[in-house]
Amino acid sequence: MNKKIGLFLVCFFLVNAFSFSQTKVFDIAVESTKKSSAKESIEYLEQQLTKVTSAAEKRALYIFLGSVQEQMADFTNACKNYAKAAGISAGDVENMPKKSNEQLVLDAVRCALSYGDADLANLYLNSAVRNSKNAQILSYVKLYAQWSALCKANDVSEINEPLEILKAYLNVESMKVVRPSILLTLWYITGEKSYSEQIISDFPTSVESAIVKGDIHLLPTPFWFFVPKSGIAEQGVGSISNVEIEQPSEPTSTENSAKLTKLQLGLFRTEANAKLLCDELKSKGFESYIKSEKRASGTTYYIVIVNENAENTVANKLRSNGYECYAIE
């Protein structure tokens, strides 16, 4: 009888220890969002990585850290951490993002391209991921291979081949999952309205559609801003500015005062990441706040906003501190 009780207690302990390990990383992720700045959050996550012993936990923390860094446009470190996570053979952790190692390799590729390192992107693309049995993974491998070719282009004459391949992909059924990204690429580089019209028509609730309409602005990354272009892609005026935005405090206006502009610094799908940016801005003296918006697709976006002042000096101060911002009204 005592042996049975002892065995039961051992099993109970193991089950609860496993359950605890599955929630520990989530608790660390939540705690990181409570820090006063993004820098402190990242430092906290890096410290926790040295203390975690479980391979699954370490992998989950690398993924979360990489996602925070990518949202903050720290693509170099995000790329490294995605790659580290991909190199760990372990399963997913409860309440944390679920990603295969192949998906993580693609995340690393995307970040490498974002800071203009086509050679590193190709190194990852030529790994085992190229022989994936997953059709969706292969679609992104093919898309990113052409993005890499565009990234390496030095002038307009060198973009013709990848553009023709991307155009051909539009008619390939297996590439359907990345069709919005293909259309966006073709529109951005050629400036042809037919591509933007197709995005809005066929994928009205996509992120690509929001970019075309002017609701979202592309980050000033080397890939998107330095790839040679054969035309000028003109965004719409946007619809976010037409939405009433709740603020902590609205500047007092008079009949003679000019309407103050709102500056958008980021648009996130994760509220925690929006809060990290918002808190970092506040730590540097900027009165930032978050406005949420639910799209027709059902996805809620969190927009980080700072009000411009009457002298129109806030935007310049933000840019001098390394923040890109865009006027939304």
Topology diagram in text:
Elements (H helix, E strand, L loop, with lengths): L1 H31 L5 H12 L5 H17 L3 H12 L14 H14 L3 H8 L9 H18 L7 H10 L9 H12 L2 H10 L4 H7 L8 H5 L35 E7 L2 H13 L4 E7 L5 E8 L6 H7 L5 E2 L2
Antiparallel strand pairs: 1-3, 1-4, 2-3
What does this structure look like?
53% of the residues lie in helices and 7% in strands. Helix 3 runs antiparallel to helix 4 (75-86), helix 4 packs antiparallel against helix 5 (101-114) and helix 7 (135-152) packs antiparallel against helix 8. The protein has helices spanning 2-32, 38-49, 55-71, 75-86, 101-114, 118-125, 135-152, 160-169, 179-190, 193-202, 207-213, 222-226, 271-283, 314-320; strands at residues 262-268, 288-294, 300-307, 326-327. A 4-stranded antiparallel β-sheet has the order 2-3-1-4, covered by helices on one side. It is α+β, with helices and mostly antiparallel strands and 329 residues long.
Summarize the helix and strand pattern as letters.
HHHHHHHHHHHHEHEEHE
- Backbone shape: globular
Major sheet: arrangement of strands: 2-3-1-4
Could you give the count of β-strands?
A: 4
Backbone structural class: alpha+beta
Distance between the first and last residues' Cα: 75 Å
Strand content: 5-15%
Number of helix segments?
A: 14
What descriptors fit this protein?
329 residues; alpha+beta; four-stranded antiparallel sheet; 14 helices
Structure in a nutshell:
With 329 residues, this protein is of the alpha+beta class. It has helices at 2-32, 38-49, 55-71, 75-86, 101-114, 118-125, 135-152, 160-169, 179-190, 193-202, 207-213, 222-226, 271-283, 314-320; strands at residues 262-268, 288-294, 300-307, 326-327.
